[in-house]
What we know:
Strand content: 25-35%
CATH class: Alpha Beta
Structural class: alpha+beta
Number of helices: 3
Largest sheet: 4 strands, antiparallel
Number of domains: 1
Amino acid sequence: MKTQNVIQYQRNCHRFHYEGDSHFLTFSCYERKPALRDDQIKRIVGTAIADTCSYLSVDLWAYVIMPEHVHLLIHPRLPDFKTGHFLVRAKRKTTNARNKKFPDNKSPLWLAGGGYDRNIFSADELQEKLRYIHLNPVRKGISSGESEYVWSCAPTMSFF
């Protein structure tokens, strides 16, 4: 039987985690500005995400770091996973590292709130979200092919 954790957020947003579920996450930059266009900032984001995954026992299945948002496909290994804890930690680590590396940049980095979170319930949905992540740079016109964008896991995955 699946266990369930429910977290209530602002505006009555409920986040559900059923043991064994994966999550498709999206979080955006403040005012949806391209605050992640610089490769140094993207590297900071990637490091913060990897650290958060390690700390919270989460497998990172897919990712793309776009100039104004991030998409992740994650799979928690522990039953008491809370999406909000993951997002807060990743965003905080990114912001702190950015502020340390660029002390003159005090503008907010992330849009407030938890972004978009969708539980993945089937293999078909998993495949759909992987495809969405891989094609995001192509759809946005910043890459001519899914395997050419270096801030995505697509160049290292070969099952499509």
